[in-house]
Amino acid sequence: MRLRIWRSDPTTDEPGSFGEYEIDTFPDMVVLDAVLAIQRSLVPDLAVRWNCKAGRCGSCSAEVNGRPVLMCTTPLSLYENEEALTITPLRTFPLVKDIVTDPSRAYEAARRVPPFQPDPNGALGAAEVERQRELRKCIECFLCQDVCHVLRDQKLYRQFVGPRHLLHAASLELHPLDALDRRKPVQETLGLGYCNVTRCCTDVCPEGIRITDDAIIPLKERLADRSDPLRWVWDRLSPPRKRRALPVLPSDDPDE
Amino acid sequence: MDGLSSLLVHAHDVLVIGAGAAGLRAALEARTAGLDVAIVCKTLLGKAHTVTARGPLDARADWKAHFRDVMRAGRYLADWRMVKTLATEAEDRVAELERWGAVLDPTGERNGLEVLRTLQQHASHTGIHVYMEHTITRLLGDRNGVTGAFGIRRDNGGFVAFEAKAVVLATGGAGRAFEISSSSWECTGDGQALAYRLGAALVDPELVQFHPLGVVWPPSTRGRCVAGDVAALRNANGERFVADAPDYVVARAIKGEVDAGRGSPHGGVYLGEMEVGPTAHAVLGGIRVDPETQESRVRGLFAAGECMGGLHGSHRFGENELVASLVFGRRAGLHAGEHAKKKTKKKTAEREELAALAREALAPFDRDEGENPFEVREDLGAVMQAYCGVVRDEAGLHACIEDIARLREALANVKVTGTRAYNAGWQEAFDLESLLLVAEATTRGALARRESRGGHARAEAPEEDPELAKVSWIARLGEGGRMELEAVPLPALPEDIQAVLLEEELE
Question: Which of A35, B47, B69, B152: disulfide with B43, CB 3.0–4.6 Å?
Answer without folding.
Answer: B47
